[in-house]
């Protein structure tokens, strides 16, 4: 950020422990701890979860142990354990340790009530405490608010200084979902709502939700997570949510309610090239997380027709991901080259070396195997390549729009790095090495944005959640750091469009000074629900007040989003947007239009004049007219308001649909 005015802000992280189904959740938020003196800190954890005071104290020791990484240190640092009227403790900690953690709670009563039993460790493979057992909560929390750590790496890869998006943040944990539990996906509405409710009560500033469901999505007035998020937003708290990991197919994006800020995942301009040399001296570059010594072995191919008794011990085997290869068939191998469709997912295998290649490279290696009597391969250790020629692209797994619930609401909103992100992991996570690990998913890109929002809120504490989203969307990058276009991985790599990355790749510096914002409040969300066809009773139940939709109903196209999405343009349509000046008081902005193919966009007025502090809000209209004579897919463009300093750009997506009347 340009100004060194960072204050400590409270932040909530709803962190999932499963990358695909986004289950087993923890909540974390940033809060201030009361200082007793220079070395001792007091931590208030709310109501006691246990009736037994000894169990309350044990939970305090567990929390300290997760911070200090030693039972002995945890016991030695404890000054008091508050165990009767409420839960809390005082401990001797360094200023850094006091790293961050200001409270922790867990919620399991709802789950146990539905399961009809006690906490059974054979079913619930988790600690009955706020402690993170599988690392996902730790990873996402440190992405958002981790301190500066120099010389961090994962087995020597991605080495450098790491920090969270808001490194001065303090973190508490609210654990609402549980590992290993199939029932209700490991979390219940009762537990989740209590976690949301406590977070709101504690005065959090950002809520980051790395969880989600699947398609079909429930309606906004029926999906309980959406209802909780709605009330969070109406309290002025931005809710940041993961787009999901079921891409790259269209209409797979989840967390699509318009009050959510939904985040897609991109790669970094970083790769881990691994040199493969065949026995005929052909050389290829694949990717891996292998960091051991060079290996030189025989080379074999396994497919569904291969003899189960074929001897592969000590060899490197080539496997295509379309072939079902059991671990038994790979027993004793020195390494595996996985030829697979692009998915940007790298992992470190523990019982053998694993290298990842695409189908084209796999086919080249297979051709060598089939034409050579005794094929061999030499594999070098992976290296870290940062910058050119590696470049940013939307990850293949990142879920795509258009929105399957309300196609006129653009989702995702924004994209952020979410592939092979280096951050801290729980000591109980087998993937961690020296406390760090690489993880991938929209679960990782979501806290990147949450940390940025924490910084924005420190600069602009009065901005609404909608203003925050607008600032991020309208200032996002549409090109990679190298200046090249951003591509989207999938069955075929293509140029990214708004359904891949929303407004683009998040740009923290520009977001702090967006110039104009597209703002909204509770009435805008009520108008949306009316325009979407929800009845008065459903809306009233959602917002908590008696609501009657106007007649005629508002147009969904008029929702004041920092985007324009027209899913059913037959001839022409006119829509309205309102912008608020958050830049210099006297400003003049001119419209710059990039019309989608076959669409004519007209903006009225095409100049906005902000002449005084009292005149900060102006409205304009956009007319879209199609020249297409047939039904089309979506074409994309943009509308930019510029004053010569600020370029306030929103994506425009239009699909022509001609209705045939009987």
TrEMBL record:
Keywords: Glycoprotein, Hydrolase, Protease, Serine protease, Signal. One of its GO terms (molecular function) is serine-type endopeptidase activity. One of its GO terms (biological process) is proteolysis. It holds the Pfam family fn3_6. Residues 558-654 form the Subtilisin-like protease fibronectin type-III domain. Residues 46-103 form the Inhibitor I9 domain. PANTHER family: PROPROTEIN CONVERTASE SUBTILISIN/KEXIN. Belongs to the peptidase S8 family. This is Subtilisin-like protease. It comes from Brassica cretica.
